[in-house]
Amino acid sequence: MMSSPGFNPFAMLTDPVSVLQAVQASPSLSRLSARIFRPLELAGSFAVRDAELAAFDAAVEVEELDDELSGQ
After folding, report:
1. Rounded CA gap, 70 and 72, in Å?
2. Mind listing the pLDDT tens digit for each residue in 14-46?
3. Where are the extended beta strands (E) located within the chain?
4. What is d(CA 4, CA 47) in angstroms, rounded to the nearest whole number?
5. Given CA atoms 15, 6, 22, 9 in this order, what sign does their dihedral have?
């Protein structure tokens, strides 16, 4: 697979079956341990956190604007 002159490692990303076959055929690659990583936080928790942060930022900006308008 790697000996061909037109070898493109990025092309393997579009064909996972050929990657699996290459791993199974290679003694050194088959010894590698495989791990599946999953996100620690759910995607929805970011939206809640972002909304809370936006509300806090808005409150601080209003407070700063009030201070500027009152001359402090």
Report:
1. 6
2. 888 888 888 888 888 878 777 777 777 666 666
3. none
4. 47
5. negative
